[in-house]
Amino acid sequence: MAGLLAAGLLLSACTGPAAEPKATAPAAAPVDSGPLKVAVITHGTAGDAFWNVVKNGAEQAGKDLGVQVEYASDGDPGAQAKLIDNAVAQQIGGLVVSMANPEALQPSIEAAVRAGIPVITINSGEEQSAAYGALTHVGQNESIAGQEAGKKFKDLGKKKLLCVIHEAGNVGQAQRCDGAKSGFGGDVQTLQVDISNPTDAESRIRGAVQTDPSIDAVLTLNSQVAARAVSAIKSVGSKAQVGTFDLNSDVVAAIKSGDVLFAVDQQQYEQGYLPVMFLKLYRDNANIVGGGKPVLTGPDLVDKSTVDKVGQYVQRGTR
């Protein structure tokens, strides 16, 4: 436990800007003498490798800290809000929630805060986190991450970038592409695809690079979409090269083979693990990590120089 406390203190130093917390946040830890029960509710879709790693992190934290963790997810904002409402009705001791569509979740999150349930947001919704009453936000700053990806392509001499958005209405993905435009400083276009229809996503990417041969860089915002982009580019003999957000075993192999230039790793295992630890510290010792600002888990760029070291952790489901 001492080691975990130290880790929490060290990570609190890695922060970025956020709105000042409002008075709706709980002033003191709820009194609860029993085992801590935490609900982790995300917008992940079924079978998404990224969210499986988040789940692994949360469940491992539960095992390490003696916390009961229940994970649920739904990509539909309305359904995700209902999951939050159900968790609140069960009088959970803590809530961890991702906010890809913050406005849809606002009433449910604020209801949890009013019920005295401490909330930590993860992954997306950093700007709204404090305003909705969350204790802190854990994730990467999407704009900064996008800027780093754009700069990487610029440094590699690319001239025209296609940024592929795979979830309509996801504020974090829009921020990534906007950041990429800022970091790239050149010609950037966006393309909307649907992650739940991989075949159509590949077809749309193929059509984009085939129609515009000047596109020499493609940035995907998800590891599964990256594989589709690689396939699409190869099928039409395009000169475009792929960079992506997030890692899985396919992306690791693609970086090693040169099919993918780099991956922006937000270390999502921490987005599952750290909030459970922070809620445990809050319940047991009234600690709030971050000083009112988010705890950043990324970005970390993984390329050929680092992929061998990182890849071993991808295989075990922790990167």
UniProtKB/TrEMBL annotation:
Localization per record: Cell envelope
Residues making up the signal peptide according to the UniProt record: 1-18
UniProt keyword annotations, A-Z: Signal
Pfam families for this protein: Peripla_BP_4
KW ATP-binding (keyword) present: no
SUPFAM superfamilies: Periplasmic binding protein-like I
UniProt domain Periplasmic binding protein: residue ranges: 38-281
Family the entry assigns: Belongs to the bacterial solute-binding protein 2 family.
PANTHER family per the UniProt record, alphabetical: ABC TRANSPORTER PERIPLASMIC-BINDING PROTEIN YPHF (PTHR30036:SF7), D-XYLOSE-BINDING PERIPLASMIC PROTEIN (PTHR30036)
Protein name, as recorded: Substrate-binding domain-containing protein
Lineage: Bacteria, Bacillati, Actinomycetota, Actinomycetes, Pseudonocardiales
